[in-house]
Amino acid sequence: MLLHGAGRTLADWELVAPVLAERHRVVAMDLRGHGKSGGGDGDWTFAGAVADAAAVLEECGMPDAVVAGHSLGGMVATRCSEELGRVPGAVNLDGHGMGRPGQYVGMDRDYVVRRLAEAREFADAAMGRPLPEGGLEGVLAYNAAMAEELGIPVGLLEAGVRRGMAENANGEVYLRPERVAGLGMQKAMAEIDLFELYRRVRKPLLITRALRPNPPTPGMPWVDALMAAYVRGLHADLDELARTQPWVEVAGVDATHAMLLERPREVADLVVEFVRRVEAGEWGARPQRG
Q1: What is the SS3 string spanning 194-221?
Q2: Looking at residue 129, what DSSP letter applies?
Q3: Where in the sequence is the domain holding 10, given as residue range(s)?
Q4: What's the total number of domains in the chain?
Q5: Which one of 32, 178, 195, 283 is CB 3.0 to 4.6 Å from 39, fit for a cystine?
């Protein structure tokens, strides 16, 4: 089962899913409040997202499937592995959220707290709001520019945007999730302690991390330095996790956070090898890395 990230849709798996389907049965779903799924008018919680995934797995007759997710979907996948007894393991593709202030290496804690609150306020303000006149064109133009910078076909990013569009009762266009679900999702991501979750893991878990920084964030020049500090702390914590937790392995992907679209073959190969090792009972026998 494949799960996408926050504000995106199952369209992000367009390049990876066919490669996986050469060897496995593959199902992708829109998370609640996203794409064509319901649930936008209710609270968004990880428990609800896991229940949705469980229902889809059951309906598709594959309750023992590995769950792989990107970004927010990776967090949900990890929770699925913990909470769904028949799920044999999970893959978290760069689903790290914004972390904790102590992970921002070399930065004053109060400064980090203030900047994270500012980023959260910016995201909350935009959640589920109708786009102004010309707003959709602006969103598509921004995605087109990002696609060009990352070497991704423009249509791939645009497909995710268009699948996530909706209209309210006044005919105004907005990008899902709806405000109620979106604010709940932001709150859930801010509150989850991923490393506590990782330390509880008793099933195979592969965590990937992006090895290249994201493009600059327009209008927020301080984000680049903040994220660079976070990446240093995050990578150190992931390295320690991999050394100390026998069920967890960490792999790097030569891409930005948009790894599904930038490096689909590399991502697919990691997932295929993970599934092979889980099925063969080899997880825990660390492969030799060159």
Answers
A1: HHHHHHHCCCCEEEEEECCCCCCCCCCC
A2: P
A3: 2-280
A4: 1
A5: 32
